[in-house]
Amino acid sequence: MKKIIVPVDFSEQSEYALKVAASIAKKYGSEIFAVHMLELSTAILSTTEGMQQDQMLFLIKLSEKRFSEFLDKPYLQDIKVTPIIKRFKVFSELNEVAEKHQADLVVMGSHGADGLKEIFIGSNAEKVVRNSNVPVLVIKDDISDFKLDHFVFACDFKEDNLPALEKAKDFANKFSAELHLVYVNTPGDDFLSTADIYARVSQFLAKAKVGKEVEIYNDYTVEKGILNYSKNINADILGIPTHGRKGLTHFFMGSIGEDVANHSKIPVVTFKL
């Protein structure tokens, strides 16, 4: 865990993420890349070219000053922090930063999103989760001492989740965490008998070459099952694959990974398939 990206919008939540990133960096000697994305108004973008350049330069200088003040924190002492300012709020650009610097992890603060706002807009964390090719750790609250003893990983144990499990195993090993695997069985069309579940899980684990037991947890929805199981075992973090669906596919089908990241009270790490 050598290089960590932290998107910064100067909010309370982004400072929560920065604190967690700092905690990880101190334990593993990591470098932090703090990324701020300017949100330029259409009024500025529609002005004449000369005036637009002057206004953009002013905003960049203002952001640099605020960025410097935001990063002047005691908990960042003795940690290498590289500030990066991107001119537009395009979340896919985080992938470019991650690839350029070979980042291992994105740590993102979030307050979540609910109701119509979630359906039509979604949270910034959801957009990062959807676009990021590296694991995204979503933080909701101020965590004074980030620890990772019990790590829950949930999926449907179909073959396309094998790469995500491999990433989850690697993540757990890096943090010396105990990995708990869970399958959530729900009523309705997705219901499986005990025999069918164990057949699918056994086949999956054989291909994954993992000699671990899988907890079968029953609940009304997959999301509720993941959250309730994690609460029952006092998990420190939960991990889940995400398909990164976009556009109408995302609107109609959604992503359980993004929903869990939005609604979980404990930290969530997502692994893009």
Q: How many H/I helices?
A: 11
The tally of domains stands at 2
Spatial shape: elongated
Instruction: Tell me the major beta sheet.
Output: 10 strands, mixed
CATH architecture of the largest domain: 3-Layer(aba) Sandwich
Rg of Cα set: 20 Å
Q: How far is the first residue's CA from the last residue's CA?
A: 20 Å
Determine the CATH topology of the largest domain.
Rossmann fold
| Parts with pLDDT < 50 across at least 5 consecutive residues | 41-45, 115-122, 247-253
> CATH class of the largest domain, anyone?
Alpha Beta
| Quantity of strands, as a count | 10
Order of helices and strands: EHEHHEHEHHEEHEHEHEHHE
| Strand line-up of the largest beta sheet | 3-2-1-4-5-10-9-6-7-8
Give me the CATH superfamily of the largest domain. Answer: HUPs
Estimate the helix proportion, in percent: 40-55%
